[in-house]
Amino acid sequence: xxxxxxxxxxxxxxxxxxxxxxxxxxxxxxxxxxxxxxxxxxxxxxxxxxxxxxxxxxxxxxxxxxxxxxxxxxxxxxxxxxxxxxxxxxxxxxxxxxxxxxxxxxxxxxxxxxxxxxxxxxxxxxxxxxxxxxxxxxxxxxxxxxxxxxxxxxxxxxxxxxxxxxxxxxxxxxxxxxxxxxxxxxxxxxxxxxxxxxxxxxxxxxxxxxxxxxxxxxxxxxxxxxxxxxxxxxxxxxxxxxxxxxxxxxxxxxxxxxxxxxxxxxxxxxxxxxxxxxxxxxxxxxxxxxxxxxxxxxxxxxxxxxxxxxxxxxxxxxxxxxxxxxxxxxxxxxxxxxxxxxxxxxxxxxxxxxxxxxxxxxxxxxxxxxxxxxxxxxxxxxxxxxxxxxxxxxxxxxxxxxxxxxxxxxxxxxxxxxxxxxxxxxxxxxxxxxxxxxxxxxxxxxxxxxxxxxxxxxxxxxxxxxxxxxxxxxxxxxxxxxxxxxxxxxxxxxxxxxxxxxxxxxxxxxxxxxxxxxxxxxxxxxxxxxxxxxxxxxxxxxxxxxxxxxxxxxxxxxxxxxxxxxxxxxxxxxxxxxxxxxxxxxxxxxxxxxxxxxxxxxxxxxxxxxxxxxxxxxxxxxxxxxxxxxxxxxxxxxxxxxxxxxxxxxxxxxxxxxxxxxxxxxxxxxxxxxxxxxxxxxxxxxxxxxxxxxxxxxxxxxxxxxxxxxxxxxxxxxxxxxxxxxxxxxxxxxxxxxxxxxxxxxxxxxxxxxxxxxxxxxxxxxxxxxxxxxxxxxxxxxxxxxxxxxxxxxxxxxxxxxxxxxxxxxxxxxxxxxxxxxxxxxxxxxxxxxxxxxxxxxxxxxxxxxxxxxxxxxxxxxxxxxxxxxxxxxxxxxxxxxxxxxxxxxxxxxxxxxxxxxxxxxxxxxxxxxxxxxxxxxxxxxxxxxxxxxxxxxxxxxxxxxxxxxxxxxxxxxxxxxxxxxxxxxxxxxxxxxxxxxxxxxxxxxxxxxxxxxxxxxxxxxxxxxxxxxxxxxxxxxxxxxxxxxxxxxxxxxxxxxxxxxxxxxxxxxxxxxxxxxxxxxxxxxxxxxxxxxxxxxxxxxxxxxxxxxxxxxxxxxxxxxxxxxxxxxxxxxxxxxxxxxxxxxxxxxxxxxxxxxxxxxxxxxxxxxxxxxxxxxxxxxxxxxxxxxxxxxxxxxxxxxxxxxxxxxxxxxxxxxxxxxxxxxxxxxxxxxxxxxxxxxxxxxxxxxxxxxxxxxxxxxxxxxxxxxxxxxxxxxxxxxxxxxxxxxxxxxxxxxxxxxxxxxxxxxxxxxxxxxxxxxxx
Amino acid sequence: xxxxxxxxxxxxxxxxxxxxxxxxxxxxxxxxxxxxxxxxxxxxxxxxxxxxxxxxxxxxxxxxxxxxxxxxxxxxxxxxxxxxxxxxxxxxxxxxxxxxxxxxxxxxxxxxxxxxxxxxxxxxxxxxxxxxxxxxxxxxxxxxxxxxxxxxxxxxxxxxxxxxxxxxxxxxxxxxxxxxxxxxxxxxxxxxx
Lengths: 1308, 193
What we know:
Chain A is α/β, with parallel strands linked by helices. Helices cover 33% and strands 17% of the residues of chain A. Chain B is 34% helix and 21% strand.
């Protein structure tokens, strides 16, 4: 095979290589790839295809996959290669290449060492087998056996592959990339990300389909046949007796004999001592451990975080507080671990991995676990294990508590020696234990211990031969467990948190009648659920892939330590060395062993999650809150200055990175009068995205009025906006939010809503809980909120973790295009959360044509979020903003976008630092709320806000006392303080100031023992600007709208728009015609608002393959017919229009057996109708809240998160139907009688039809027949009395309750 | 410092990519130029799934994987005095050489010596005709010199799979040799072999 590729556009390839145009150049196949990267540093070799495959997707767990691959290097051998050849081949994977290229290297070596290509693909990208009861046992055994050998290369993937004789394609278990195929009667198979990519006459197509999640599609061109997923996988699964091998050699924990030695519990006194040594606080016990044990749930918090970063805190920190969780945004989607539990797995194996290049039944001789948390009894069983060839060794993880430099280092070195010896001596399990400590010997932080051994053994080529089990006292919250697993622990026994629960129980400190056994079960369940949430945040489905994947950025540990002990992890601002880490440990150790002689001792207070008098310091504390409110109410700038001084001056007490900076003077000061006026500066302010629903109407509209008065922008948040706010008030004020947010829930996102925006913000992530969804429980959804969100009063609403139309960067480009079509006067803003790598993502977003990029800090406020997410996910904005600015400048993209930042900006000084680091616009949310009355009670998630800000309780809302002028005062003060700083630094304009990081320096004389280890030069790194672009936004994006079809549609619809006269038209379309009808709807909404035009006023017919987003946000009065087929996102955000789609008249296919529209149809639709003659892809009607749809079959996750509307499914559904469906009704024609197996029963009942249902279905069938000539509809209507029995009504439980309740209420 | 190296807060490992994929195949393996052309059409119709940076003429990358077009190579090679055996009895490597002539020739030497070491006859090199006028400025700045290398199958190798494995070892050996012995050889790349 031969590959022609380069850093070319798709059109250049054919011309660049003149070979390709030569008619003598022939092949039986051609596999193509077009690349969209976040960045543009040119490189020809990054182009695809590679030697065996092309990949659309992303490997989320690459670091782990590479490490595990290298971990077995010592044992790799193959009969197909001599040992000399093997030396040449190893280490197989080239350095410095893309994730896809690494995957290709592994595919290649596994193929050449004797496995077939389909076999290799099944190993690397397995289906979700764990817990799948419907899967063929033969196939399940194949997957389980191979799971003991290799972890999945996890992440969204559409893969095409070939060895020259077979060619095929595969989707990952989540199916997050589209792949459509067509088979023609002249023996060709066409496969592409989009249908219609190769136009062929409809009458020669004999089959149209799509690849489903986890499925494979193979053509054997040597044999001349198409092989189905089932056939090929059956063949692979029967090649060896995998099931038998597992039966004979797999070790099950429950089958292990009882331990030889009994486990000894810590005495009560020891529990206290150990808690001190390992750093427990009273808050940890009260706020974290108790709820986990009692309710089995992780606790919830609110209002962000404003305590010092771990590296700036005076209090001794847990080592994992320096580790910040990664999360997915833009380039891959997070997963919903609750509603899509079926793809997730916590199962894992302890033991040796063996020789990957060989198939050996002994590969599966290891201990299988359902999840990685071990009870005390399980740990002891493992310690005593002896199968004749499987044994465990315990290593003590301590260091000398002498406070001497180098003590921790020698402790680690000793540990490495012992570990290496133990592997040499043939042990399969190493247990790292920190129980044996005393006054002279302190515990090594377990995360450091496990990672050190993990990397030491990888370097020695030994890691694959052992499992690492951690028995540790310093593990109690979910984040601790996640860190351990990500840095190499195979399983964990949290003996001290279990002992803590037992003590609490025995002392009667728990409000629960459960016994210890249940409490510990609850606790472990909470840990497991929390782990799934952390994996899913990064888009990772399985523990096996997460294991060793190191998905963290380290903030505050120096590079030497990281390179040596956390090899490969990212750390960018330096920080502690080993001796400082030891010092922090010893501080706690001494509390336990030296200072604890007195009787009345207490654990430290904590005070991280809520301000406490003796606890950790908070920037917003009673004093600063009081001063700010006083300043805002009285308009007294001098009071504001007192407040600002308390926040800004961090020379004594440090909180933030910006607190470590000083301004550097390079210019003569200018007078204050010369600086641009306050009014023009205030236009650059925005408030944060807070939804009506999380805060009260009073608070929300007060913010809006204030921002409109100063020319800034307030933000709707994700809850929609009441239309009454679009009309200005009598006094000239306006409650309309300039920024309309488009979040994953798409609540209230209609054409009219989008039309009423100055800016449309796509929320990719939220600082307080990036990568997570949210939930508004039914009792909070009152009639007003329900109306604004287009949902039902009393029915709960779920915001999915991801936008279901953004699984990758090209998808985001598509949504930006959609929104620009929906309102071309609005700026499109993409909100990202600061993390390592946000700069390259920002570059990709700029290339996807966003107008504004917001970099939000991790510390931003929230109505409700798991407290571990508030604290441990994401980074301060200083890092993200600086990285984004630097990367955009280097890519010559900076001048095309506005950069905005937010996250606990509280003063003019904060804003000045933000401007110098690259932001020309700024968001201030928490401080604005405080100015409006918030007193930081942090009770937003409880609906009991005592000042009427974050509550929907009518009585509490009356207590809201904020006025727009208070908020205006705050912004005036901030702007004034900023102007003073500008004058001092010699800047007359903001534009002149943006991105000039050389005007910042690290404050001198910082002697704090932790802070002085930081190296902030990377943040202040001045960017070279060879192309002389501006460092602020100065040019507009080309949105590529010049030649869209909608301009023709508008022309044809002129009469309808002007005089409501019905119009008709016909147009030919192809897959490059995207987002059809959206500009038209924007124009319609401008004139006719949400009411729209009478039905069937604008009647257009299209012929061909329509591009993505056909009919997106189409408004009432529009009626589209499409003869042909469509791609993804049909009827996205449908706002009242009617769409009918049916196959070409030329087509000879049976419509109901073939796919006609792509994935994610009707996402976020609020009203309108869709009739589809044929099948739809995955996630049909996801988050539909009002549209009515008829379709003849759907893929996986049908009607997910639906809250309203009706869906009539006249054929098969995929798995997980109705997951998270809280409202609306679906009727399913259960042809095969197995629908119940495919439905997720968590939230819905499966009911028989009522008479009313039958009437509605018959009406819909008649309409379907009339609009699409569906034979199926005709058949059902003609045989209704027989066939009606095969219909099932899918009825959400909560919705049913509300409807039934409403029936008994008198109408008013 | 190389442009791609870490600088400020940027790290090369943060890069992401994503894209459009596709293929067309004849089920019975009938070869034609139409298939190649159709595959390129599929690619072109997914242009909107790719992206351009600051320079609109520079794409992020595009490519096609094909079976070895034997008749075409046969005829092309004749004019270069390279005699190819029947299909399956030779292999083709698609090589991106650095533009710098010294580096390029050092890389070429590595290709030749590696083939020799493994006992694989090197039949010759073919410089690919390209039309660089269409390529964007940014891409042009790092455009490689693309050549194909033809490797013969020794008589002691009896089947295609074993020959493929030998070619795989050869590719690994060449890459290692170049990275160990050639300065400025980091742009050297074998797209396929």
